[in-house]
Write a sequence for this structure.
């Protein structure tokens, strides 16, 4: 039997083992009570926004451009909720998940058991990161989906007038919302890479979570200081608000493209750091 003949089954077994490990990781993430409570918190914000808009009149010139449009089309409730949760709740959700990846496993003593199965460290780290990206995407989907449902119930859905004044059909608007969700998922996935690296530095999941919240909050603060305008394009969060550019005609791709490049650069750098740290880490617990 040739080397190629034996390599294919080995790769298939490795892939199948990785899929099983990912499935186990996702069941663990979704089964934690605090994560389930976090999902409820994420879902509650769009509901509060929709109810508040239903019984109040937004002031002109206050908040994102699409807040004033929310009462005319429920799809803008999803965009408003995403804008509100982007600065705190979504990064906090990513931080909570990131803290449990490596630091949480080390804290409860299961990380050493995983590595004695044995599971290759690189593969384990990759599975952990993929689970974080999936978790971040679920968080964005929960916010957007809940906003869409409650917005549709209170304000209706139909042809959508974009921020540029052009009217498009509902299917087109939903496609644009999907683009916004994917764009934000990439940005939060890059934040998860930072969180994964921090999680390899400690065995205290709370400490890792707090550290990532501090990092994301600091970036938002730095992004608002005019004197640091030279630094802001290099901050991960700088281009996050560009998700609303999907609701312009034509779609403004420049800011979103830059945001994707910055996010991918952050992910590449911090995943490399996480790999370098984790593969050399002395697992004592």
């Amino acid at each position: 039997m040739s080397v190629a003949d034996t390599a294919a089954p080995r790769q298939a077994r490795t892939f199948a083992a990785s899929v099983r490990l990912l499935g186990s990781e996702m069941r663990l993430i979704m089964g934690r009570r605090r994560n389930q409570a976090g999902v409820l918190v994420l879902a509650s914000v769009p509901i509060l926004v929709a109810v508040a808009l239903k019984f109040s009149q937004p002031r002109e010139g206050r908040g994102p451009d699409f807040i004033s449009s929310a009462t005319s089309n429920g799809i803008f409730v999803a965009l408003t909720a995403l804008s509100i949760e982007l600065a705190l709740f979504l990064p906090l959700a990513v931080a909570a998940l990131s803290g449990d990846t490596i630091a949480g496993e080390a804290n409860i003593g299961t990380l050493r058991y995983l590595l004695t199965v044995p599971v290759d460290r690189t593969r384990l780290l990759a599975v952990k990161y993929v689970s974080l990206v999936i978790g971040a995407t679920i968080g964005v989907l929960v916010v957007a989906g809940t906003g869409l449902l409650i917005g549709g119930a209170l304000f209706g859905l139909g042809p959508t007038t974009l921020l540029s004044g052009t009217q498009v059909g509902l299917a087109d608007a939903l496609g644009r919302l999907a683009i916004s969700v994917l764009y934000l998922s990439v940005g939060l996935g890059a934040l998860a890479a930072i969180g994964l690296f921090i999680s390899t530095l400690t065995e205290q999941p709370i400490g890792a979570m707090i550290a990532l919240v501090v990092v994301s909050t600091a970036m938002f603060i730095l992004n608002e200081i005019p004197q640091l305008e030279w630094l802001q394009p290099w901050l991960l969060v700088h281009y996050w608000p560009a998700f609303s550019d999907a609701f312009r005609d034509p779609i403004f791709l420049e800011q979103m493209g830059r945001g994707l490049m910055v996010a991918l650069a952050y992910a590449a750098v911090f995943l490399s750091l996480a790999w370098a740290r984790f593969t050399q880490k002395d697992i004592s617990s």
Notes: The mean pLDDT is 88. The chain is about 70% helix and 0% strand. The longest helix spans residues 121-155.
